[in-house]
Amino acid sequence: MPTSDISLEPARGKAGDTRSRILETARRLFITRGIDAVSYGDIAKDVGSTRANLHYHFGNKSELIKEVFADTFEEVRQKLEGIWLKPGLSLEERIDLLFEDAQERFHQFNQPGAGRMPWSLSSRARFDFSSVNTEVIDGIAGMSRFFEECATHGVKLAIGAGEYRPDTPVKDVVLLIAPLWYFGSPITQFSGIKRLRNHYAATKRTIKAAYGA
After folding, report:
1. 64, 51 in Cβ contact below 8 A?
2. Torsion of CA 25, 31, 37, 38, to 10 degrees
3. Structure confidence at residue 132 (pLDDT)
4. Which of 62, 83, 137, 142 is the most buried (most CB within 10 A)?
5. Whole-angstrom Cα distance, residue 109 to residue 116?
6. What is the mean pLDDT of each run of 10 residues along the chain (213 residues)?
């Protein structure tokens, strides 16, 4: 094996690890402090690196923001597919899984008894709109459309399984569910995770009472 092959592989692995740590740290800081408020220096200090190293991996802050969102979009897409597209679940079970995902992310950023920290990157972007470019904005809009497409599929499966009446207005049910996902972080930031849980429970009851078979 040539010596170049021996020396390059560890370097690539180390670079990949560094890049991943930068992305993970940047996402956490963007969520907890705000995209506007976090500088390259803040991220470099938290990672234990230098501003020059961040520039080497990502160029400017705008490019780093774009990549953080791209990684997040992919994770969210996979999560939504697991909740809404998996066969054999009732609509209420899917809504429960949606809440469990929100609760998990809430606890990732909030210690017990101190539930005032935001936990959604897209929600943060709505407050720091000037810091994200049109590609990120389009990505957030695309994720919203994807969520509603997934929820629509889940509602149709529930109607087909006989959980809800055949004349159930699918779009209306999706519109009842969607704000739970869109505004979960602001709700918990001001009212706590129990209030968000109550919103989920009330939505399930309302859908069942209105359209249950």
Report:
1. no
2. 10
3. 84
4. 83
5. 9
6. 35 67 95 92 93 92 94 96 95 98 94 80 82 89 96 97 98 98 93 95 98 96
**55's tokens:** 């520039």
**164: β partners:** 212
What pLDDT, on a 0 to 100 scale, did the predictor assign at position 17? 86
How far apart are the two ends of the chain, measured CA to CA in Å? Answer: 68
Query: How far apart, in whole angstroms, are the C-alpha atoms of residue 5 and residue 7?
Result: 6
CA distance linking residue 120 with residue 55, whole number of Å: 25
Which residue reads 């930068």 in tokens?
Answer: 22
Residue type present at position 102: A
Cα dihedral: 45, 33, 125, 186 (round 10): 150
Residue carrying structure tokens 């950023």: 109
Handedness of CA 105, 111, 112, 115 (dihedral sign): negative
pLDDT at residue 184 in the model: 95
Q: How far apart are CA 152 and CA 85, in angstroms?
A: 10
* Coarse DSSP helix, strand, coil percentages of the chain, rounded to the nearest 5 percent: 80, 0, 20
Q: What is the DSSP string of 16-85?
A: HHHHHHHHHHHHHHHHHH-TTT--HHHHHHHHTS-HHHHHHHHSSHHHHHHHHHHHHHHHHHHHHHHHHT
Report the Cα 48 to chain-centroid distance in Å.
Answer: 26
Closest CA to 193 of 78, 81, 110: 110
Instruction: Note the pLDDT of residue 102.
Output: 96
Q: What is the pLDDT of residue 123?
A: 87
